[in-house]
Please model this.
Amino acid sequence: MDTAQANARPTVKEPRFGPRMSIAGIIIGILWVITFNSHPPQEGSVFTQGTVVDHDIAPKGICSPIAELAVDGVAYRSDPGVGAEPCEHAIGDPIEVAYHPDDIRGTLQIPHDEKETRQVIVISLPGWGLLIGSTVSLVNNIRYRRKAKQAQA
Model:
């Protein structure tokens, strides 16, 4: 009966990618998601008007506005907002900004509108796919190695 059960077990297929490749995919996926994920303003943020003072222009011509806001006589600059081609905002244009009063320098940002939020979500999808696929691959690698050790014993 033991031999019948052993023959009835499905054979374990060797994984296509090794654990190192899966771990590298997980790391790249996490970095991708962190880089391209949408970060809405935190609770308690103040929304006001800033001024476009510069543009961050990518090599492919995508133009991202950089806003400046003066609070209590101190000027703060935001990180670049979501870009477009051509530039949607000219230098000197007013633009909505958000910041938390407890940490203006660390939280000043140009919030996403509904269209930009959809763009950011679409851009982050490959990172999520890579992260999930690599995690599944790593789990399969671990299961395969355990079953291979059990078969040897």
